[in-house]
Amino acid sequence: MTPIVVDTDVVSFLFKNDSRAQLYLPLLRNHELLVSFTTEAELEQWILLAKWGADRIQRFRAFITGFVALRCLPGHPQSEGLPWRSQSKPSELCLEGIIPRADGSGLRTGCVRQREKECRALSNCRFDPDPSAVPLDNSLAGRQSQAGSRLVASV
Amino acid sequence: MEKPDISEQIGEKYVHTGHPSIEELVAEQGTRFRVDPADLLGDFWPEDEPIEDFLKALHEWRGHDRSDRAA
Fold this sequence. Notes:
By secondary structure, chain A is of the alpha/beta class.
């Protein structure tokens, strides 16, 4: 099975059992399903805001085990991603986590920008914005040129 | 001799590489890929919480709004 990254909206269609989930099911078959840690954080954020009860949370946690989360790993700076500032909007940050597949091939998700305060609120990762971090566009270009053996999960 | 906890083993490896494989993440998280993705259709999301509300919040969190073309 090849892995694919499923974004938050599609996961929510599944979990909500929304009619739109049926559109995606054929695309999900025979794949290892991955989610960005951002997706986990966004769902958890919603659950907190909507004040779900313990039973719903428990059932959510059971369903989310059907995906592997591309998480930052607390305490391991190398795996906590490289934040960099958007050139066009300096108040925004992107965070890139890079995870190779065991067989040496890789995938890359799209980048989603977050405002700094939202990054801090949403992510369970440590954010240490570095003012001297690589600009967005250069960073992406560099990563793409560094072999396809990397998976880039972005917040 | 006591066998080290798997999370400790994985954590130690991460310190050196910083790049866990998908297989390692699966082991760490106890992921169980479903044979049929239809098994991921949930029954726990409150009926009185429209998915559109969640999607709207999601877009706001991500900075996607009509005035923000770069987001």
